[in-house]
Predict the structure of Carbon monoxide dehydrogenase.
Amino acid sequence: MTSTIEPEVGKARRRKEDERLITGRTRWTDNLTLPGMLHLAVLRSPFAHAKIVSIDVTEAKSAPGVVAVFTGKDLDPESAIGMPCAWPITPDMKSPRRPILASDTVNFAGESVAVVVARTSAEAHDALEAIDVDYDELPVVLGLENALAEGAPLVHEELGTNQNAVWVFDSADAGTGSSVEDAISTAEKSGIVLKRRFRQQRLVPAFMEPRACVVDPTGSQLVMWSATQVPHILKTMTAATLGLPEHKVRVIAPDVGGGFGGKIAVLPEEMMSTLIAQRLGKPVKWTESRSETMVAAHHGRDQIQDLTITANRDGTVTGLKVELLADMGAYLGLVGPGVPILGAFMFNAIYKFPAYHFACTNVFTNTTLTDAYRGAGRPEATFGIERIMDELAVELGMDPMELREKNWIKHEEFPFTTVAGLTYDSGNYEAATQKAKELFDYDGLRREQKERRDSGDPVQLGIGISTFTEMCGLAPSRVLGSLDYAAGGWEHAEIRVLPTGKIEVITGASAHGQGHETAWSQIVADKLGVPFEDIEVIHGDTQSSHKGMDTYGSRSLVVGGIAVVKAADKVLAKAKPIAAHLMECSEDDLEFEAGKFSVKGTDSSTSIQDIAWAVFSAHNLPDGVEPSLDSADTFDPENFSFPHGTHLCAAEVDTETGRVRLRSYVCVDDVGVVVNPLIVEGQVHGGLAQGIAQALFEEAVHDEGGTLTTGTFADYLLPSAADLPSFTTDRTETPSTTNPLGAKGVGEAGTIASTPAVVNAVVDAVRHFGVDDIEMPLTPMRVWHAVRHGSSAAGGLGSEAGGGLGSIDATGGAQ
């Protein structure tokens, strides 16, 4: 018998799933080939807004290898409900029906209008060219303020408006604080009132594996394989959308090549594939091209943020007012309307605001819909508050770190209920900041910055700060219910103890690269005292893992992992009376450690493996005890978890060319108790890359006709490892008090914190040229214009100066 001596939790184990992933010895959705399988190719509209006058598919039907061609009129009667939106944020939210295939009107460039079914993928795509669609173009509306202007073209004529919904939170009304208008009135007389507008550009999730699905209707169940983050949600929504009996639908998410929120949707193509598979009685496969991903998968961000902050002359903040415009695109995504609302609770961040007002207006435009993208509302909020804190520091003549320290929640004040109504359970912003400053050499870099400025060095140095917190572990079901979200935030796990003492862990948190198989194995190894290698983690199949709410919102460990912990506790509770019976002692005399039940004060013991075999044989069990150790738990969190950290960025800006080089980047994060440091490092590094990419590189740009002009990676600028600096990362640890692991989420921290740190650094470098903002991404052209003409020119460039300008500089800038 083998027992685990050294604790697994906290050990930097290499991920057990990586051997198959890195070597390609795995199964992606597009790898699947079923007997008699047919292939789908989708025809997409080249226009952002147009009436469909006619669709002629005659020639396409006779093309080589073509089995069938479907238009919206062919499929629409079977899908009258349209695509689902699970988050009606207000009772009067306008929710236009999104068809699976457009039959009357197209509302964004890339909307699907017809689908070819052929024997091979190549034949299906070739036949698309034979479809003749006659469009009658309609006026296009782009841009949030344009869409709300009087007389603007309407995306959906039947709605009579482009305004989707208005959602408001006011601390005075909620009883969590005082009136912002009173704070503004007071500050106008004796303090500071500062207003700023920030732009969150539109981003493409750009996951490694394009979306795909395979549907097999030939068995007793309809089986769908999908490159999805949410197999359980997809199963339920497929049944509800298409009117199928849910017990006859099985969804499998095999290994998935990334998601970042971009695979949280329920797709028209998944519904289309299901309908066509049922119609033809044969398996079908749809795999999108990369260019389809860019135009038809959902986008992220795209907000205008108007912030007003008030403060006393000594730097004490007194109020915060946030007014958002958020672009929904042409339709509503599965959770898209609620994404800005998640940010509503985070604009106040780590600061003790006595008054707070938040209002968000969601808007329709003739663009691809927006939905969750890594961080989902919290990066946008962190960007806004961390940018305006820097601006307030300048207005007050204070060091921006000093201003933050003056206003943040002190470690002895936890638990702390914020002005937004959330209770932060634990944290220590002082400790994380002190460690970050030491690693960064904050004071030394400030001295160098002054020397460069005094000498007129053409390469100026800027220092950017981001002290952040976020709410992870989405989410307590009652909170989601209060926000009108359609589902809960619980998670399910099961543990099966096999006869030989090996363990199967079944989790509803379906991974797409996060390392669940390794982390869950470490947790169970410690709880049950079995070797790490003896544990298998099963996920992603709604037949074997029948319950779950899936993976997003940094919820896997702090919700799904806790369900695993609680299921393991139940295994031990079942094993204890059996162990007492086998050793002929009282349960009260037993203790459990390192995989063994022992009689206190004696050498008598029995292992979990011995008990597993005794249960399997069932020859000698206590009366009334079932022969099973298998256990399950469904965990619904009481609260969010609140990781935090301090991120510091030093940026060098060449004032003659606008080139930005990230000289150093330091982050100290507090994610509570760490299960696997290697996994945490990977999550932080990946998050930093995405957040820095928003600051410097990425932007989805449309021309005046609504065509995406950044529809390839030649135009949409993604950084590689060579374009980013080496990161200095470290951690502090204040355990969460709301879960037995003491863990907090980590999956989105890097993305949330890094964008404002980088932008603050660049603005800090060129502020003495009259610059107080530069619109993201901070391309060399925008930075150069800002240096010469001030913020008005940099912010006024608009999408014409978007991502994709010039080549990448290997040290981290673009030129």
